[in-house]
Amino acid sequence: MRGYILILLCLGTTVHAATLTATLKPGTIKQGDSAVLTVRCEGYELATVDPERTPSGMGFSFRGREKQLTSIDGADKVSVTFTYLVTTSKPGGYVVPAFTAKLPNGDLLRSEPLTFMVLDRDGDAVAGRQPNGFIKVQIDQSKVFLGQSFSVTMELFVLRLLPSDLPVPQLTTPGFRFTRKRPEFFRTLRLENGTRYDVFVFKTGAVATKVGKRNIVFETDVTVRDSNDFFGKRKQIHVASNPIAMEVVPLPAEGRPANFSGAVGSNLLFKVKAGSTAVNTGDPVNLSLEISGRGALDQTTVPGSDQWEGFKLYPAKSDIKFLGTRHLYAFKNFERIIVPLRPDITEVPKIEFVYFDIGTEKYVTRTAGPFPLRVTGPAIQTGIGDPPTLPNTQLEPDQKAGKMEPLRRAPGVLAPAPSPLLTRPWFLAAQATPLLAWLLLLSWRRRQIYLEKHPAVARRIRVQKLTRKTMRTLRQPNTQADPDAFHANVQIILREHLGMAMNRPAEGIGREILEDEALPLSGENLAALERLHERNQLARFAHVQEPVNAPLNFKDLDRVILALQ
Fold it and tell me: Could you tell me the end-to-end alpha-carbon distance of the chain, in angstroms, rounded to an integer?
């Protein structure tokens, strides 16, 4: 027996001293290659480890498990190494998530997340060359309580971002959530290590939902061009922030009231208002309860008990409004109907709201009421879960019979029989609807087959539709007020018509191709095309802030399109 206890004690000591560490080599790879990830557990023989999450665009390929026994000062020490190959589907900065394993005593082992860089197949972002994008994050606190909200500022640095693509960095670490999933942002330019980036600054907040120490990361995918040329090749890259150490501590158990609502905030206010002061038994009384202040109140439940002596309570309805761009301050309102059942009730009981204050690190109780209430009328008996029967709607059997007596004596004129369905126009139209729908689908399908056999016709129709849509955008005042957006839309039309005239994909047309191949343009038409390209370069890449001369651009654009046709 003593030997068995000794074995358990040794096992407990071994499990308690177990650690889990991860390493990744090399730190930079090319797209299509793999990095070697090793997850090593020392102090306990683990059977397996699992990633904390499965990142988008990243794959893990298990390559083996190796066990090692070493003897230190006569004591055996075990270690297990798990090996994986890590591959990605696109270039950019990546974060390998933490790996976890659960021990028999209930403890959770967790490695730290790792960052690495994936170059494109041409070796983009090589040494001495800045990456196309990355994320910087600022967090106002590194240690928070469970359920506490904190501010987050995300800065997305991007080179040559497409105007139509602006993703929001996502908080991918388990145990945290955003207070606002689509935050407000502003755009600026910033010089970073000699490179001028477009910087998009997002201001939001986050809430801790899980206890423990972990590094949080922010990631997203962005689509960029490989050069400053508008017709440059597009590619999608993955960008990520460096891990940020955060510690989430549990709420203290000492001094926690039994009616704690789960709300965590700072100096929260609590107000209650009763809609009526004098009612009959069975009449509804509306209670309005409001909680306001800094805190994550979206999951806060209605304060107070669900059972009051002498009252029937109905489920509360709630709505919430946020203040500020980060949604760290909120007003949450509950509407609850209570029904008094006895005439001896003289007040609406007091209601307590208990929350944890992060400033004082103590539980705070806010109290509202009691509120005076005068109730008249007979008492109402209700069963458990049954709604009250209102006195003013209760009728005796003889009263009900008296109300039906005039109908029995003079039933009135019978309604005429309706006409047959076949004589009604709407019925005939309903029968013809499937046939009409079939004919429409048949003609649509024949048109699709024709366009598949004649790709040039299909392309001309698509270009014409795109031209009409883009021209409507160009004629809008807000587009003409933005030179960057105006000239970008002009280039979209030009690229599609040039591609159709040259029988080439529109995406691959650049300055080099236009110079190498002979265009069906000459004289003033070719000069108009050059003027359009020059205005685009000055407005979008040289940042020349001149107002758009829309009539002149429309004249040149119409001349080029007509000549290409």
Answer: 96
